[in-house]
Specification:
7 strands, elongated, mainly alpha, 10 helices, 3-stranded antiparallel sheet
Length: 334
């Protein structure tokens, strides 16, 4: 007779892939939130480049001999000139210009900007793909667990519903449908930096920016973890245990329950736990003919010995007493 097919192998594979996909979504959401934290609350992306302060050249007049023929000339104090940047101006005008001139500060991108950009792109790509894969595998799990009548399939259905919601919110649908108010959890790095710059320069949109780039990724990560937990608990009773370690762990748990409840009520529950371990339905306890026969023979022998007192020899040396072979009780015994 060919072996009965079971859904355990299929459910085991789906459980592993659902766990991997949910883990990727969790990591992508945390990466997205941390990236925004570095972009907005730190200055690692840019570096200020300040020009060197100009050097003022001042020419001071005085009495000095002329180089060449002629008489010495004196330069009055009022005619002192200051040469700033190679251009001669008056002293008063030079001080006013130096005071009013503002220093131009330029900003340049650092290497951290490239690192954050790549981290955001990687998180968006992996997170969106993993969210879609998680939704598809949860739907396959509903089909397999429902077809195999696995106890706990309602949790698998709950996981599938929330995976659909998660995929709809995680994928950047705003790129395809601009009319939607929400951009999605895994949106590109350019939108992140633009929102951060707008918030820093004008102070507007603080609540929306935090909800988009901090709250939404963390909620998506928590939802993915819950989806994986619901799926694993829903398909746990549909997986046959094949390794010795898992069987030993279940036996230890069952023995602990037996010691806690007592021996009198443990037989039926132990058999049920073993049947659940093997992936089969619980079967009623079967009678044991050999044990029943031994118990019955023991009772008959005790009654024969009690009634007759056993065989004995009389004065003539003959065996008297005991049961006859035609006795019904003796016939049952032999």
């Amino acid at each position: 007779m060919p072996p009965k097919p079971h859904v355990s192998a299929a459910i085991r594979q789906l459980r592993s892939w659902v766990t991997i996909a949910a883990t990727l979504v969790v990591l992508a959401g945390l990466t997205q939130a941390l990236t925004f934290g570095f972009v907005h609350f730190t200055d690692v992306r840019t570096a200020a480049i300040e020009p060197a302060p100009p050097t003022d050249l001042t020419v001071i007049g005085g009495t000095a001999p002329l180089q060449g023929p002629g008489k010495a000339m004196e330069i009055p104090d009022g005619n002192v000139r200051a040469a700033v940047g190679g251009i001669r101006t008056s002293a008063a005008a030079t001080s006013a210009a130096a005071t009013s001139a503002a220093i131009d500060v330029n900003t340049a991108r650092t290497g951290w900007d490239l690192v954050l950009h790549r981290a955001s792109v990687l998180a968006c790509g992996i997170g969106g793909f993993a969210a879609i894969a998680l939704m598809l595998m949860c739907m396959m799990g509903v089909a397999v667990a429902g077809g195999g009548a696995v106890p706990g399939v309602e949790r698998v259905v709950t996981a599938a519903v929330w995976s659909i919601i998660l995929a709809g919110l995680a994928v950047p649908v705003g790129d395809f449908m601009p009319s939607l108010p929400a951009l999605g959890v895994f949106v590109g790095y350019e939108s992140m930096t633009a929102s951060s710059t707008l918030w820093s320069s004008t102070g507007a949109g603080a609540a929306g920016t935090l909800a988009q780039w901090v709250v939404a990724p963390l909620v998506a990560a928590a939802a993915a973890a819950l989806v994986a937990l619901w799926f694993r608990t829903g398909v746990a009773r549909g997986i046959i245990i094949t390794s010795v370690s898992e069987l030993d762990e279940m036996a230890e748990r069952e023995m602990a329950q037996i010691r806690k409840r007592g021996v009198s009520t443990a037989i039926g529950k132990s058999v049920g736990a073993l049947n659940r371990t093997l992936g089969e339905a619980e079967l009623p306890a079967q009678p044991h003919p050999a044990e029943d026969a031994v118990d019955e023979a023991t009772e008959i022998a005790a009654s024969l010995a009690r009634d007759s007192g056993g065989p004995r020899l009389n004065a003539a040396g003959k065996l008297v007493g005991g049961r006859s072979t035609v006795d019904s009780g003796f016939k049952r015994l032999i």
